[in-house]
Amino acid sequence: MKTSPEPGRDSQTDRILIETEPKTDTLRKFSLQFKDQNTENSYIMSLIYPKSQNFQTTKVENHYYFLTTLLAILIIYSLGYIFSYELSSSLTFQLLILNISGICFYLSYFLIQKQLLSILLPEMLQFFYFSISISLILNSKFLQIWIFNSTSSSFSCIFGILLIQATSKFVLLFTFRAFFMTNLLISFIYLALHIPAEQDLLLTLLEFFVILFSTTIETVKFYYLELEYRERYGICSSDIQGKNKEAMTEIESITFSIQQALGIVNILILTSVRYKAHMQELFDILSKVLKAIMTKTNLYEVDMDGITAGMDAEDKIFMKEYVKDNKKPQPESLKSELRKTFELPKRYQVEDLLGVLRQVGNNWNFDIFFLAECTANKPTTTLGKYAIGKYRLDEIFKISESACQKFFEKLESSYKLNPYHNSTHAADVLSSFLFILHQSILFENATDYEILACIIANLSHDVGHPGFTNRFLVNSRDSLALTYNDLSVLEMMHSSLSFQIMQEPGANILGGLSNDVFIAVRLQIIEMILATDMSKHFDLIGKLKAKIVSSPNRPIDTPEHRLEIMRIAIKAADVGHAAKSRDLHIKWSHLVIEEFFLQGDLEKAKGLAVSMYCDREKTDIPKSQSGFIKNIVLPIYESLNNYIASTVIDSDCIEELKRNQSQWEHAHTRKRVFTAKPGSLDMGDTPMLKTLKSLGSDFRNSTE
């Protein structure tokens, strides 16, 4: 029989033994038993060893409740004997028969939890439950008169039986079937022993039916609890199995292999006494490796303390200042808390739009086009000033109204008039990001300086965008690609340009920050903007997925953890139009498609290979949009929400994503049907494509 790891180990590495081999663990709902016997055995073992289970079925406290209850029963009934009888052989026999089962149980339970016993554990515990119940029945007043010829008073056995019945579930008895059959047998044994006593038959029948009724009620409760526990266990035990059926990143593959090794080592620890010390040492080493993989920000970061050991103080300072990469400081002094006051002060000339702007962060489908129209195409300036005032960041970081105004105006004017990558898109990304922030655990943990960095990063993430992809810039040997060495060309330019704007007179929005806060804010802005590079997509998603799989909790209490999530959040916001309502999504889709087509036109003119989905004559629009949502956007949102677990994001964003993807897929299917017929429309005739055509016509008319 397979057993679980030793209780008390690090929860991050105790994924328990069941995950070490493939299995079929489909649950039979009627009998509540897994079809695979190994899974069934592992489920029982995870209940016997509550400290080592990984799906939180039972709590250790449940075991303590039963142990305490049993101890109280033994003490109370033993005292009842002592005070009710004279010292005699019958008293000695009664004390022995009552306590021997309890003492044996405590001894066996201790040996089991220390893993010194590993054979027939469920059957052994069930036997002790049966023995203790029978010993309580033998304490009955009627049986004392009948067997021991004593008329002394005593406690009724009913109270003890009902108490251990209520507290023994998932501690001594692990399935509702075992619970029902065992207690049914006990109730009939009670009846069989009491009827020959010929004492108050009515009371005997009444107590029998009380036990029977309690057994029925407790069995029903047991069934539904067991169903919940087993379903939860089945989900958990299938997590690692599913990894074999999908592509894994390198880090996921490594952590998966280490988890398998930990499970094997656990088996050896439990079954091999001879090499137990060596196995324990190996387990600790593997646990340390797994913890390092999942907590280190940079696995290749050098241990400067080890390198500088033995150096004098001045040499140590020199090494750490000039040799170590210091781009990621996390100042200990940053203790500011997020202010939870949201009333915007009467400033920044946005009072007339407060009714509209208060939707930001609360309405996922906030219409940024309407805001752009209301502000004479200045949505970035308006939304930036509103956000700074909304969180009182101007007061916290001494940002003057004039610096705030000038920075956002300069930032907005630096956006080019592209169909898609323009200042309206930047404002929409900030609106989407703030919604994700407010509807998740991020908001409760983020600090003031992180909020400030997020606002600037979102509004700056595409500043100066020329309307072409990194691939085009590199292939055409554009000056930007030469400047940034072909590495994240646009993202490097966006982050650099945003800080260049701050250098202009009167536009330094970060001028009031202390040096350590400025470094932290600058780092976060750069990291978040660089995260929008699609070439980093699978690296970032893979790292987050690996953390989700390998960690039972979701740490977000350090700047490093929050930055990691915020990088995924800005990616989600950047492609967030795909998760918006149908009308908004169609409008944004048209704009991005038109920008792609303009690049394709230029690639043709330059004699370059036309990038995928950039050829206006050959691109299958529904297919391209469906594939983009399915393969890029949906995994971003699902990975993000697996970490932050927001029901609002699930309902408002992920469900809308699935609907939009389904619409595009349906449009693609319809298109193939139509184009299969001679003379049919090339684009099909679905409502979504009709809308897209009309939007395309509107766009052309507006640009002519």
Automatic annotation (TrEMBL):
Entry binding sites for Zn(2+) 2: D462
Protein family: Belongs to the cyclic nucleotide phosphodiesterase family.
Pfam families tied to this protein: PDEase_I (PF00233)
The protein's Enzyme Commission number: 3.1.4.-
Keywords, sorted A to Z: Hydrolase, Membrane, Metal-binding, Transmembrane, Transmembrane helix
Top-rank taxon, per record: Eukaryota
EC top class named in words: hydrolase
Annotated positions binding Zn(2+) 1: H425, H461, D462, D574
Annotated active site: H421
Stored InterPro entries: HD/PDEase_dom, PDEase, PDEase_catalytic_dom, PDEase_catalytic_dom_sf, PDEase_CS
TM region(s), chain numbering: 64-85, 91-112, 119-138, 144-164, 171-195, 201-224
MF term (GO), any: metal ion binding
Known cofactor(s): a divalent metal cation
Keyword Hydrolase: yes
Ranges where the PDEase domain occurs: 345-671
GO biological process: signal transduction
Comment on bound cofactor: Binds 2 divalent metal cations per subunit. Site 1 may preferentially bind zinc ions, while site 2 has a preference for magnesium and/or manganese ions.
Positions that bind AMP: H421, N422, S423, T424, H425, D462, D574, Q625
Protein name: Phosphodiesterase
